[in-house]
Amino acid sequence: MTSFISYLSSLMSPKSFPLMLLMTMLIIVFFLLNLLLGTVDIPMSSVLGSLSGHEENLIWRNIILKSRVPQALTALTAGAGLAISGLQMQTVFHNPLAGPSVLGISSGASLGVAFVVLATGSLLGTALSSTGYVGEVVLTVAAIIGSIAVMALIVYVSQKVRGNVTLLIIGVMIGYVANAIIGVLKYFSAEEDIRAYVIWGLGSFARVSGDQVWLFVTIMVILIPLSMLLIKTLNLLLLGEQYARNLGLNIKSSRIWVIGCAGVIIAIVTAYCGPIMFLGLAVPHLCRAIWRTSDHRVLMPATALTGAALALVCNIIARMPGFEGALPINSVTALVGAPIVAMVLFRRRKRDATE
Protein backbone atom coordinates (compact mmCIF):
# COMPACT_ATOMS: atom_id res chain seq x y z
CA MET A 1 0.00 0.00 0.00
CA THR A 2 2.86 2.35 0.86
CA SER A 3 4.59 1.68 -2.45
CA PHE A 4 1.34 2.35 -4.34
CA ILE A 5 0.92 5.68 -2.55
CA SER A 6 4.51 6.65 -3.37
CA TYR A 7 3.89 5.67 -6.99
CA LEU A 8 0.81 7.90 -7.18
CA SER A 9 2.69 10.76 -5.53
CA SER A 10 5.46 10.48 -8.15
CA LEU A 11 2.85 10.80 -10.91
CA MET A 12 1.09 13.69 -9.14
CA SER A 13 4.29 15.68 -8.65
CA PRO A 14 4.25 19.29 -9.93
CA LYS A 15 6.64 18.35 -12.73
CA SER A 16 5.10 15.15 -14.08
CA PHE A 17 1.33 15.51 -13.58
CA PRO A 18 0.76 18.53 -15.91
CA LEU A 19 2.75 16.80 -18.66
CA MET A 20 0.81 13.56 -18.18
CA LEU A 21 -2.48 15.46 -18.36
CA LEU A 22 -1.35 17.36 -21.47
CA MET A 23 -0.29 14.13 -23.19
CA THR A 24 -3.64 12.51 -22.35
CA MET A 25 -5.50 15.47 -23.86
CA LEU A 26 -3.31 15.29 -26.97
CA ILE A 27 -4.17 11.61 -27.37
CA ILE A 28 -7.89 12.46 -27.30
CA VAL A 29 -7.40 15.22 -29.89
CA PHE A 30 -5.28 13.02 -32.17
CA PHE A 31 -7.78 10.17 -31.83
CA LEU A 32 -10.62 12.43 -32.99
CA LEU A 33 -8.46 13.73 -35.86
CA ASN A 34 -7.88 10.11 -36.91
CA LEU A 35 -11.64 9.75 -37.24
CA LEU A 36 -12.11 13.09 -38.98
CA LEU A 37 -9.26 13.17 -41.53
CA GLY A 38 -8.79 10.85 -44.48
CA THR A 39 -9.24 10.44 -48.19
CA VAL A 40 -13.00 10.88 -47.72
CA ASP A 41 -14.06 14.21 -46.21
CA ILE A 42 -16.52 13.55 -43.37
CA PRO A 43 -17.81 16.41 -41.16
CA MET A 44 -17.37 16.23 -37.38
CA SER A 45 -21.13 16.04 -36.82
CA SER A 46 -21.27 12.85 -38.90
CA VAL A 47 -18.25 11.43 -37.05
CA LEU A 48 -19.97 11.99 -33.70
CA GLY A 49 -23.24 10.71 -35.14
CA SER A 50 -21.56 7.51 -36.33
CA LEU A 51 -20.06 6.92 -32.88
CA SER A 52 -23.42 7.46 -31.19
CA GLY A 53 -25.33 5.39 -33.78
CA HIS A 54 -27.44 8.27 -35.13
CA GLU A 55 -25.70 8.84 -38.46
CA GLU A 56 -28.05 8.17 -41.40
CA ASN A 57 -25.36 8.07 -44.12
CA LEU A 58 -24.50 4.37 -44.21
CA ILE A 59 -21.28 4.87 -46.23
CA TRP A 60 -19.87 7.43 -43.81
CA ARG A 61 -20.87 5.28 -40.83
CA ASN A 62 -19.11 2.24 -42.29
CA ILE A 63 -15.95 4.28 -43.00
CA ILE A 64 -15.87 5.54 -39.41
CA LEU A 65 -16.78 2.33 -37.59
CA LYS A 66 -15.16 -0.28 -39.83
CA SER A 67 -12.04 1.55 -40.96
CA ARG A 68 -11.04 4.64 -39.01
CA VAL A 69 -11.97 3.54 -35.48
CA PRO A 70 -10.10 0.20 -35.80
CA GLN A 71 -7.05 1.99 -37.23
CA ALA A 72 -7.03 4.58 -34.45
CA LEU A 73 -7.43 1.96 -31.72
CA THR A 74 -4.68 -0.16 -33.27
CA ALA A 75 -2.31 2.80 -33.55
CA LEU A 76 -3.00 3.88 -29.97
CA THR A 77 -2.40 0.49 -28.35
CA ALA A 78 0.44 -0.58 -30.66
CA GLY A 79 2.30 2.70 -30.14
CA ALA A 80 1.99 2.42 -26.36
CA GLY A 81 3.11 -1.22 -26.36
CA LEU A 82 6.13 -0.68 -28.61
CA ALA A 83 7.27 2.34 -26.60
CA ILE A 84 7.09 0.42 -23.32
CA SER A 85 8.94 -2.58 -24.77
CA GLY A 86 11.66 -0.27 -26.09
CA LEU A 87 12.10 1.31 -22.64
CA GLN A 88 12.35 -2.12 -21.05
CA MET A 89 14.98 -3.25 -23.57
CA GLN A 90 17.09 -0.12 -23.12
CA THR A 91 17.00 -0.49 -19.34
CA VAL A 92 17.78 -4.20 -19.11
CA PHE A 93 20.66 -3.95 -21.62
CA HIS A 94 21.90 -0.50 -20.49
CA ASN A 95 22.06 0.34 -24.19
CA PRO A 96 20.45 3.49 -25.67
CA LEU A 97 20.29 1.81 -29.11
CA ALA A 98 18.29 -1.17 -27.87
CA GLY A 99 14.79 -1.43 -29.30
CA PRO A 100 12.01 -3.90 -30.06
CA SER A 101 13.95 -5.45 -32.95
CA VAL A 102 17.27 -5.77 -31.13
CA LEU A 103 16.81 -9.42 -30.06
CA GLY A 104 15.59 -10.64 -33.41
CA ILE A 105 11.98 -11.03 -32.23
CA SER A 106 10.67 -8.91 -35.11
CA SER A 107 12.89 -10.89 -37.48
CA GLY A 108 11.33 -14.08 -36.13
CA ALA A 109 7.87 -12.75 -36.95
CA SER A 110 9.09 -11.75 -40.42
CA LEU A 111 10.49 -15.25 -40.92
CA GLY A 112 7.16 -16.82 -39.98
CA VAL A 113 5.33 -14.59 -42.46
CA ALA A 114 7.98 -15.29 -45.11
CA PHE A 115 7.31 -19.01 -44.86
CA VAL A 116 3.58 -18.40 -45.33
CA VAL A 117 3.89 -15.88 -48.16
CA LEU A 118 6.99 -17.10 -49.99
CA ALA A 119 7.39 -20.80 -49.24
CA THR A 120 3.72 -21.73 -49.73
CA GLY A 121 3.62 -19.75 -52.96
CA SER A 122 6.58 -21.70 -54.34
CA LEU A 123 5.42 -25.13 -53.11
CA LEU A 124 1.65 -24.89 -53.61
CA GLY A 125 1.54 -22.45 -56.51
CA THR A 126 -0.69 -20.06 -54.52
CA ALA A 127 0.41 -18.24 -51.39
CA LEU A 128 -1.83 -18.71 -48.36
CA SER A 129 -1.69 -14.95 -47.82
CA SER A 130 -3.81 -14.43 -50.94
CA THR A 131 -6.78 -16.42 -49.63
CA GLY A 132 -8.64 -13.47 -48.08
CA TYR A 133 -9.61 -13.51 -44.41
CA VAL A 134 -8.17 -17.00 -43.87
CA GLY A 135 -4.88 -15.79 -45.28
CA GLU A 136 -4.80 -12.84 -42.85
CA VAL A 137 -5.40 -15.19 -39.93
CA VAL A 138 -2.66 -17.53 -41.15
CA LEU A 139 -0.25 -14.59 -41.47
CA THR A 140 -1.00 -13.49 -37.91
CA VAL A 141 -0.56 -16.98 -36.49
CA ALA A 142 2.69 -17.48 -38.43
CA ALA A 143 4.09 -14.18 -37.15
CA ILE A 144 3.17 -15.04 -33.57
CA ILE A 145 4.77 -18.50 -33.86
CA GLY A 146 7.95 -17.03 -35.35
CA SER A 147 8.19 -14.33 -32.66
CA ILE A 148 7.48 -16.69 -29.77
CA ALA A 149 10.01 -19.22 -31.10
CA VAL A 150 12.79 -16.62 -31.22
CA MET A 151 11.78 -15.24 -27.82
CA ALA A 152 11.88 -18.74 -26.30
CA LEU A 153 15.37 -19.20 -27.75
CA ILE A 154 16.47 -15.85 -26.29
CA VAL A 155 15.08 -16.74 -22.85
CA TYR A 156 16.90 -20.09 -22.99
CA VAL A 157 20.17 -18.41 -23.98
CA SER A 158 19.74 -15.78 -21.25
CA GLN A 159 19.92 -18.59 -18.68
CA LYS A 160 23.23 -19.78 -20.10
CA VAL A 161 25.08 -16.46 -20.46
CA ARG A 162 25.75 -13.79 -17.87
CA GLY A 163 26.59 -10.61 -19.72
CA ASN A 164 23.92 -8.46 -21.33
CA VAL A 165 26.30 -7.61 -24.16
CA THR A 166 26.69 -11.30 -25.06
CA LEU A 167 22.93 -11.78 -25.08
CA LEU A 168 22.54 -8.66 -27.19
CA ILE A 169 25.04 -9.93 -29.75
CA ILE A 170 23.33 -13.33 -29.88
CA GLY A 171 20.00 -11.62 -30.52
CA VAL A 172 21.49 -9.60 -33.37
CA MET A 173 22.97 -12.81 -34.85
CA ILE A 174 19.57 -14.50 -34.67
CA GLY A 175 18.16 -11.57 -36.62
CA TYR A 176 20.86 -11.95 -39.28
CA VAL A 177 20.16 -15.68 -39.61
CA ALA A 178 16.43 -15.03 -39.98
CA ASN A 179 17.07 -12.37 -42.64
CA ALA A 180 19.41 -14.76 -44.48
CA ILE A 181 16.70 -17.45 -44.62
CA ILE A 182 14.20 -14.83 -45.81
CA GLY A 183 16.65 -13.83 -48.56
CA VAL A 184 16.88 -17.44 -49.75
CA LEU A 185 13.08 -17.74 -49.79
CA LYS A 186 12.84 -14.52 -51.82
CA TYR A 187 15.31 -15.86 -54.38
CA PHE A 188 13.12 -18.89 -55.13
CA SER A 189 9.77 -17.08 -54.93
CA ALA A 190 7.52 -15.57 -57.56
CA GLU A 191 7.48 -11.83 -58.07
CA GLU A 192 3.93 -11.34 -56.82
CA ASP A 193 4.72 -13.25 -53.60
CA ILE A 194 7.80 -11.10 -52.99
CA ARG A 195 5.70 -7.98 -53.51
CA ALA A 196 3.11 -9.22 -50.99
CA TYR A 197 5.84 -9.88 -48.43
CA VAL A 198 7.46 -6.46 -48.99
CA ILE A 199 4.10 -4.72 -48.49
CA TRP A 200 3.62 -6.61 -45.22
CA GLY A 201 7.10 -5.55 -44.12
CA LEU A 202 6.26 -1.86 -44.57
CA GLY A 203 3.90 -2.06 -41.59
CA SER A 204 0.33 -0.82 -41.36
CA PHE A 205 -2.23 -0.07 -38.67
CA ALA A 206 -4.98 -0.69 -41.23
CA ARG A 207 -4.27 -4.41 -41.38
CA VAL A 208 -6.20 -5.02 -38.16
CA SER A 209 -9.92 -4.86 -38.88
CA GLY A 210 -13.24 -6.47 -38.02
CA ASP A 211 -13.24 -8.75 -35.00
CA GLN A 212 -9.43 -8.85 -35.00
CA VAL A 213 -9.12 -5.30 -33.69
CA TRP A 214 -11.06 -6.07 -30.52
CA LEU A 215 -8.92 -9.16 -29.85
CA PHE A 216 -5.75 -7.15 -30.45
CA VAL A 217 -6.86 -4.24 -28.25
CA THR A 218 -7.97 -6.62 -25.49
CA ILE A 219 -4.60 -8.40 -25.50
CA MET A 220 -2.69 -5.09 -25.40
CA VAL A 221 -4.93 -3.66 -22.65
CA ILE A 222 -3.97 -6.70 -20.57
CA LEU A 223 -0.24 -6.72 -21.41
CA ILE A 224 0.47 -3.00 -20.97
CA PRO A 225 -0.77 -2.78 -17.33
CA LEU A 226 1.00 -6.07 -16.53
CA SER A 227 4.27 -4.54 -17.75
CA MET A 228 3.82 -1.81 -15.13
CA LEU A 229 4.42 -4.46 -12.45
CA LEU A 230 8.09 -4.48 -13.49
CA ILE A 231 8.66 -0.82 -12.58
CA LYS A 232 10.51 -1.60 -9.33
CA THR A 233 12.64 -4.23 -11.08
CA LEU A 234 13.57 -1.81 -13.86
CA ASN A 235 14.54 0.89 -11.34
CA LEU A 236 16.84 -1.57 -9.58
CA LEU A 237 18.39 -2.73 -12.86
CA LEU A 238 19.03 0.90 -13.73
CA LEU A 239 21.36 1.14 -10.73
CA GLY A 240 23.63 -1.57 -12.10
CA GLU A 241 23.66 -5.35 -11.68
CA GLN A 242 26.05 -5.39 -8.72
CA TYR A 243 24.10 -2.82 -6.73
CA ALA A 244 20.76 -4.47 -7.62
CA ARG A 245 22.12 -7.86 -6.52
CA ASN A 246 23.19 -6.39 -3.19
CA LEU A 247 19.63 -5.13 -2.72
CA GLY A 248 18.34 -8.70 -3.12
CA LEU A 249 17.28 -8.69 -6.77
CA ASN A 250 17.63 -11.96 -8.67
CA ILE A 251 19.31 -10.66 -11.82
CA LYS A 252 18.77 -13.76 -13.97
CA SER A 253 15.05 -14.19 -13.27
CA SER A 254 14.45 -10.43 -13.47
CA ARG A 255 16.13 -10.27 -16.87
CA ILE A 256 13.98 -13.17 -18.10
CA TRP A 257 10.80 -11.46 -16.89
CA VAL A 258 11.64 -8.14 -18.53
CA ILE A 259 12.74 -9.73 -21.82
CA GLY A 260 9.70 -12.01 -21.82
CA CYS A 261 7.28 -9.13 -21.18
CA ALA A 262 8.81 -6.94 -23.88
CA GLY A 263 9.07 -9.88 -26.26
CA VAL A 264 5.39 -10.84 -25.97
CA ILE A 265 4.30 -7.25 -26.67
CA ILE A 266 6.63 -7.03 -29.69
CA ALA A 267 5.41 -10.40 -30.97
CA ILE A 268 1.73 -9.44 -30.78
CA VAL A 269 2.20 -6.00 -32.37
CA THR A 270 4.38 -7.38 -35.17
CA ALA A 271 1.95 -10.21 -35.83
CA TYR A 272 -1.00 -7.88 -36.27
CA CYS A 273 0.60 -4.72 -37.70
CA GLY A 274 3.85 -5.88 -39.27
CA PRO A 275 7.28 -4.68 -38.12
CA ILE A 276 6.76 -1.10 -36.90
CA MET A 277 10.13 0.62 -36.66
CA PHE A 278 11.42 3.64 -34.75
CA LEU A 279 8.72 4.05 -32.06
CA GLY A 280 10.24 1.62 -29.58
CA LEU A 281 13.73 3.04 -30.07
CA ALA A 282 13.02 6.78 -30.02
CA VAL A 283 10.06 7.34 -27.69
CA PRO A 284 11.97 6.42 -24.46
CA HIS A 285 14.66 8.98 -25.34
CA LEU A 286 11.97 11.56 -26.06
CA CYS A 287 10.31 10.93 -22.69
CA ARG A 288 13.58 11.12 -20.74
CA ALA A 289 14.26 14.50 -22.33
CA ILE A 290 10.74 15.84 -21.76
CA TRP A 291 10.17 14.57 -18.20
CA ARG A 292 13.87 14.91 -17.25
CA THR A 293 13.90 11.77 -15.10
CA SER A 294 15.10 8.17 -15.16
CA ASP A 295 12.51 7.01 -12.62
CA HIS A 296 10.42 4.28 -14.25
CA ARG A 297 7.48 5.16 -12.03
CA VAL A 298 7.16 8.23 -14.23
CA LEU A 299 8.80 6.96 -17.42
CA MET A 300 6.59 3.88 -17.91
CA PRO A 301 3.22 5.71 -18.09
CA ALA A 302 4.86 8.67 -19.83
CA THR A 303 6.35 6.39 -22.49
CA ALA A 304 3.04 4.63 -23.03
CA LEU A 305 1.19 7.94 -23.49
CA THR A 306 3.84 9.45 -25.76
CA GLY A 307 4.08 6.30 -27.88
CA ALA A 308 0.30 6.25 -28.32
CA ALA A 309 0.21 9.95 -29.26
CA LEU A 310 3.08 9.68 -31.75
CA ALA A 311 1.56 6.59 -33.37
CA LEU A 312 -1.76 8.42 -33.82
CA VAL A 313 0.04 11.37 -35.43
CA CYS A 314 1.89 9.06 -37.82
CA ASN A 315 -1.37 7.31 -38.74
CA ILE A 316 -2.96 10.70 -39.57
CA ILE A 317 -0.05 11.64 -41.83
CA ALA A 318 -0.04 8.21 -43.50
CA ARG A 319 -3.57 8.72 -44.84
CA MET A 320 -3.83 12.48 -45.17
CA PRO A 321 -6.18 13.86 -47.83
CA GLY A 322 -4.46 13.95 -51.20
CA PHE A 323 -2.83 10.53 -50.86
CA GLU A 324 -4.31 7.59 -52.72
CA GLY A 325 -4.62 4.84 -50.13
CA ALA A 326 -2.10 5.09 -47.29
CA LEU A 327 1.63 5.66 -47.03
CA PRO A 328 3.83 2.96 -45.42
CA ILE A 329 3.69 3.57 -41.69
CA ASN A 330 7.41 2.79 -41.24
CA SER A 331 8.34 5.62 -43.58
CA VAL A 332 6.10 8.04 -41.70
CA THR A 333 7.35 7.06 -38.23
CA ALA A 334 10.97 7.64 -39.27
CA LEU A 335 10.34 10.89 -41.17
CA VAL A 336 8.21 12.40 -38.41
CA GLY A 337 9.92 11.09 -35.32
CA ALA A 338 13.63 11.20 -36.17
CA PRO A 339 13.89 15.02 -36.52
CA ILE A 340 11.89 15.53 -33.32
CA VAL A 341 14.07 13.19 -31.28
CA ALA A 342 17.28 14.60 -32.79
CA MET A 343 16.17 18.13 -31.88
CA VAL A 344 15.31 17.09 -28.32
CA LEU A 345 18.63 15.29 -27.82
CA PHE A 346 20.62 18.22 -29.19
CA ARG A 347 18.78 20.62 -26.89
CA ARG A 348 19.40 18.28 -23.96
CA ARG A 349 23.12 18.09 -24.76
CA LYS A 350 23.27 21.87 -25.07
CA ARG A 351 21.51 22.30 -21.73
CA ASP A 352 23.88 19.84 -20.02
CA ALA A 353 26.87 21.70 -21.47
CA THR A 354 25.70 25.04 -20.08
CA GLU A 355 24.98 23.67 -16.59
| First-to-last CA distance | 38 Å
Structural class: mainly alpha
Radius of gyration: 21 Å
Rough outline: globular
Task: From the structure above, extract its key features.
355 residues, mainly alpha, 0% strand
Describe the secondary structure blueprint for this structure.
Layout: H1 2-11, H2 16-36, H3 44-52, H4 58-93, H5 105-124, H6 133-158, H7 164-187, H8 191-201, H9 211-227, H10 231-238, H11 241-246, H12 251-273, H13 279-291, H14 296-318, H15 329-354
Helix pairs in contact: 2-4, 2-14, 3-4, 4-9, 4-12, 4-13, 4-14, 5-6, 5-7, 5-8, 5-12, 6-7, 6-12, 9-12, 13-14, 13-15, 14-15
Descriptive notes:
The chain has 355 residues and is mainly α. It has 15 helices and no strands. Helix 4 packs parallel to helix 9. The radius of gyration is 21 Å and the shape is globular. The model has no long low-confidence stretch (mean pLDDT 79).
How would you sum up this structure in a few lines?
The protein has 355 residues and is mainly α.
